[in-house]
Amino acid sequence: WGFCSGSRAAQADAPTYDTPQQAAGTAAHWVCSQVLTNAVMLCSDLIGETAPNGVVITEEMAECAQVFVMDVLKVCQEHGALQSLLVEHRVEMPQIHEQCAGTLDAGLYLPDKRKLHLWDFKFGHRENDPVGHLQMVLYVAGLVHEYQINGFDEQQVDGHDPRAGQQLAK
After folding, report:
1. Distance CA 84, CA 78 (A)
2. Terminal-to-terminal C-alpha distance of the chain
3. Which is nearest to 102 in space by CA: 115, 116, 86, 117?
4. C-alpha distances in angstroms, 83 versus 56, 95, 104?
5. Which of 54, 55, 57, 120 is deepest in the core (most CB within 10 A)?
6. Taking a C-beta distance cutoff of 8 angstroms, is the pair 6, 98 a contact?
7. What is the DSSP annotation of 70-132?
8. pTM, whole model, 2 decimals?
9. What is the 3-state secondary structure (H, E, C) of 25-46?
10. Is 56 helix (H, G, I), strand (E, B) or coil?
């Protein structure tokens, strides 16, 4: 979508398959969603379990998932907003294109504070820079549409990379 508008048509007849890295990433995402939606277990409790895609959960998956889960829960607890947390939430972006949609790993909209927190968990392939990450831009667009955020009142947006501890946008 972001780099080649014709990619959807070009991929329409192409076979799809998961690489081992994609399958591991899907399984690690399952760990995150299980812990965030049940909120009673640790990611390490799922080591050795089999994810719905057939991949056995490893210690590395659980450790990486725990870092993600801890950050999400920390923000939710700071705002007393665990009940508002979106986990593996389908987001539509019809203002981009009628077929544009995706599944947000975790998100939290705090309308009274005019804050939108998004998390995107990556595991199994390579590091992804959060700055200018088009997938996240699309998720923001989708949630702006879903929550009918007008954009004028919400111009005080804080963005930061928790790994670097620095402001990305203001």
Report:
1. 13
2. 26
3. 86
4. 30, 28, 17
5. 57
6. no
7. HHHHHHHHHHT-GGG-EEEEEEE-TTT-TT-EEEEEEEEEETTTTEEEEE----SS----STT
8. 0.80
9. HHHHHHHHHHHHHHCCCCHHHH
10. strand
